[in-house]
Structure formats: C-alpha cells, structure tokens
Amino acid sequence: MYKVLARKYRPLKISEVVGQPVAVTILKNAIETGKLHHAILFYGPMGTGKTSLARIVAKSLNCDKGPTAEPCGTCEACQAISIGKDVDVIEIDGASNRKIENARNIIESVKYPPLKRRFKIYIIDEVHMFTLEAFNALLKTIEEPPPYVKFIFATTAIEKVPDTILSRCQILHLKKIPEAEISKKLLFISQSENIKIEEDAIDLIAFASNGSLRVAEGFLDRCMSFKPNETITKDDVSKVIGVPTREKVKEYINKILGNSEEEALKIINQLLENSINLETFNRIVLEELLKQESPLEIKTALLSIFYQSLVDIKQKIHPQDALIVATYKAKAATKLDKIENLIEKVQSGSFIIDSNNTKTEKDAENKKAIEKNTSHESLNTDIDNNSKVDLILKTFGGKIINIEKIND
Ligand SMILES: Nc1ncnc2c1ncn2[C@@H]1O[C@H](COP(=O)(O)OP(=O)(O)OP(=O)(O)O)[C@@H](O)[C@H]1O
Ligand SMILES: [Mg+2]
Ligand SMILES: [Zn+2]
User: Fold this and answer.
1) Which numbered atom of ligand 1 lies nearest the CA of 48?
2) Which of 141, 173, 205 is the last residue of a domain?
3) I need a surface site. Which of 76, 130, 132, 297 has the fewest CB within 10 A?
4) What are 245-274's pLDDT values in tens digits?
C-alpha cells in the first residue's frame, strides 16, 4: 500500500525533528536529567511536529533501554508507540472526546498503573476542544498525577486552553519551520524516493507551505502524481499547487510601477484562470515590495495598499475583487511625489497644477489656495522647514496627511 510522504517520513527520533531547536533542547535536557515535567503541552501551527514529538517523548520514557533522549526505535515498546498502538501510551483525540464523561474516564483509568511499561502516558491531541467542565474535572489529576503517569497535550489553539490548565503544564512552543529547513528535508526525501525535481521547484514548494512540513510533503506528493517520470519544474509546482512564481509577481509589480494597470489586471485574471491562489500571490507581492527600491513614499503607500487587500481577503472579500481594488489604488499611489520635491516646488514657487485634476469645485478651491500660497511674495520669506511642511499639509488637506499616516 502506498504511504503518503508525510507519514512515511514522520520523525521517529529527536534528531530527525527539524526546525525546532528550542523545544528539542529543552526536552533532551529534561529527559537526560530525569526532570521531565508530568504534564507537557506542545502548541504551534499545524504540521510542525507536535504529534511526532509527543510520540518521541513517550518512546524516550518507555524504551526498553531508557529512559533516554535517543530511544532505540527497535524494541517492542518503541515500535508499538511509533505506530500509536501501545497498551500504556493512550492517544486521545480531544475533538471527539471532549465531554466531561471522557474526562472522568481518564481520571478513572489514571488510577491503574501501567501494564507493561515504565510510564502510563496520555497523549491528548487537539486538547483545546475539551469543554470547560472536562478541563475543570481534570485539573486535580493534571496537577498531581500518580508518579507513573505523564500527560502530553498538543494544540494549535493555545488561547482556547484555560489558564488553570496552562499553569499546570510545561509549555513548549513549536514554530513555523523555516523555508530553508523545509527545502532541505524535501531534497532529502526526493533523493531517497528517486523523485526528479529541480531545486527551485523545491524552494517554491517550501515557500508555499508556509512553515508546515506536512503541507510541504503533501505538495510534493501531488507534484509526483502529476509527473511521475519526468523532472518536476517550478512551473509544474505552480500549476499543481496553485502558487504563483516570483517572476509573475515581479511582472505584476513592474506593470503597476510602469503605470500599465490594465496589463496588471490582465495578470490577475490570468492567475485566476490558472487556479493560482490569490492570497498567496498577495503575500508574495508584499514580500517583493519590501525588496523594491522605489521612493519611500510610493513604497510605503504600496505596502499599505497590499497589506489592506490581504486583510480583506482574510476577511472573506473575494480575492479577485480585493486585488482589482488594490491595483487601482496602487496606480494612484505610484503618482505620489516625494515630500522633499513638494517642499522644493512650493519653495521655488514653481508648483504646476494639473488642470485635469481640477474637476470639482473643491479641486478648484485647492488650486487657488496652492497658487496663492506658492506665489513668490508668500514664500520668499525665510520660513523654517516645519512651517513649509505645515503649509503643504494645509494646502493639500487630507492628501498629504494620508501619506504621513501610511508612513507610520
Ligand atoms: N519538525 C518536524 N520535523 C520533521 N518532520 C516534521 C516536522 N513537523 C512535521 N513533520 C512532518 O509532518 C508530518 C506531520 O507532523 P505532526 O503530526 O507531528 O504535526 P502536528 O504538529 O501534530 O500537526 P497537526 O497540528 O496538524 O496535528 C510528520 O509525519 C512529518 O512527516
Ligand atoms: Mg498532530
Ligand atoms: Zn526502544
């Protein structure tokens, strides 16, 4: 039977866990000195190693040759725990056992010592799903379990676990796994599995997986099914998992900076037709903008615009709509002038007002105001810089003030 990569490559030893140096060091030291807390809680994003580490800790404690930070992996205990089938390592899914009756069952079973191993270990996944009553019922047991009992909790939502529980646990935070670490692991898997894949294709998968190794391995699985015999390229990855290439993103930004918003909108449509995930696209646009060397005013305005569209998309505005609006706003932003230039223009009295921009009565008023304020008489006096900025702010009303806000 084919085993998906994420399961086949589940880390079985602590040395195989990648990207979690802090948690790993704390655990290793605690195990080696025999000072492991009786209740540990792993929290962090999905697919970062919580369940894997929980099982590794269980093996460390119960290995025939242990307790040891490097369990042998071959004894009966290690093998049974690795596949989640040991009599004394009880894995409970918090989502489907969340009620007080379930908590009472745990409390009852804690009374009986382990049948075969050193410790009786309860691994409770998705523990944040427990009801408040269930948590409360467990408080005392978690605080003072019999010496042969250990609790290992795992959750992606620590904020939903009551403080009363948290204060009785040793908390270990698993982080998003850095892209470079994910790439390294994917490269290792590709070599072991004889998967032909280009290096930048691997990097694109690592980027798209957003810190989750399980997601990354799932993507690699999909790409393999798409091209089982030929070399997987970056474009294949883009197509299969719906992630845009950086080149596309750069092309889009260049269109915006080059003032061809129609072309930029075409790119958005193209991406949509190719089922590219527009939220990911938006994320990469922000990353690329950060690297851009455009004037600060334009850069900050663009960042703020695309940050807003990302927020909109997360709040369920249709991604295409959010990006169309952002594209138009971005077009306007690229016309922003440097504040130094504005000061200089005001100072020299050479302010040129675009007559196309005086469509409304308000615009006409502004135009008059600018002309009045920038006349030579009013400016040749020796005013300090602050007053000049003040003057510009007054003249432009909200417009410049907006730039200032974006700069915050
Ligand atoms: N830190 C890691 N080191 C090595 N492999 C990892 C790591 N994190 C995840 N993986 C890979 O992802 C798979 C799933 O990991 P695991 O079940 O430990 O994640 P999890 O944090 O419990 O995720 P979830 O929150 O979805 O339950 C593993 O089998 C392994 O292939
Ligand atoms: Mg898990
Ligand atoms: Zn062992």
Assistant:
1) 8
2) 173
3) 132
4) 888 999 999 999 998 999 999 999 999 999
